[in-house]
């Protein structure tokens, strides 16, 4: 009997929740909440595999320490992205409500404020996210400049030249101004371009990257 009452109550609550979600007057507020949820989930999906690979490839320490580092990085990325989406969508809704309509500047201003508040601290997680976005922005602005006619449409695909300049610049920085590069990029490049020049026998030539006492 109690089980039937509980099941009926749950059905009523679910029905009421679904009805609330369909109310147009609550749509802006609900979108902010859904944005927070999506930011948290997406941040975890993006950071967890990246942290897993980078930690086990380049970080030393016990298994417990590595797992703790992965969990902390995943949590930080997930939290920050959730906070940013929540802030951005909340400010968008507020501006649209005040002016009665949505204009392009609303998006820019809301994102600037969210970026300052959430990603303004200079730490490894925020640095990676901002650099990731910066590269996409440069490509996007280049395409927009062509679409708007500010620069002429290239006669040939400019990507080979971009690739050459990017790789030329980053290796020059690595070789002669390494401290200007992000630590994770330094670790990757050290593994690729410096560790490949050191070996003692077949074990650390093909099997291991570096020979240790246990090897």
Automatic annotation (TrEMBL):
- Output this protein's name: PXMP4 protein
Question: What cellular component terms from Gene Ontology apply here?
Answer: peroxisomal membrane
Q: Which domain of life is it from?
A: Eukaryota
From the broadest rank down, the organism's phylogenetic lineage runs: Eukaryota, Metazoa, Chordata, Craniata, Vertebrata
Q: What InterPro entries is this protein classified in?
A: Pmp4 (IPR019531)
């Amino acid at each position: 009997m109690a089980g039937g009452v509980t099941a009926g109550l749950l059905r009523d609550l679910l029905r009421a929740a679904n009805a609330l979600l369909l109310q147009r007057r609550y749509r802006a507020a609900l979108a902010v909440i859904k944005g927070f949820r999506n930011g948290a989930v997406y941040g975890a999906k993006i950071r967890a595999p990246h942290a897993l690979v980078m930690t086990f490839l380049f970080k030393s320490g016990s298994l417990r320490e590595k797992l703790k580092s992965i969990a902390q990085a995943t949590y930080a990325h997930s939290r920050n992205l959730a906070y940013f989406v929540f802030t951005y969508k909340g400010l968008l809704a507020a501006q649209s409500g005040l002016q009665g309509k949505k204009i392009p500047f609303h998006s820019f201003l809301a994102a600037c404020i969210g970026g300052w508040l959430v990603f303004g601290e200079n730490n490894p997680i925020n640095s990676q996210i901002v650099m990731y976005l910066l590269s996409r922005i440069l490509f996007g602005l280049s395409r927009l400049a062509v679409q708007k006619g500010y620069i002429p449409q290239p006669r040939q695909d400019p990507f080979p030249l971009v690739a050459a300049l990017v790789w030329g610049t980053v290796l020059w920085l690595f070789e002669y101004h390494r401290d200007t590069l992000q630590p994770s990029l330094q670790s990757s490049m050290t593994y690729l371009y410096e560790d490949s020049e050191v070996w003692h026998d077949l074990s650390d030539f093909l099997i291991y990257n570096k020979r240790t006492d246990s090897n």
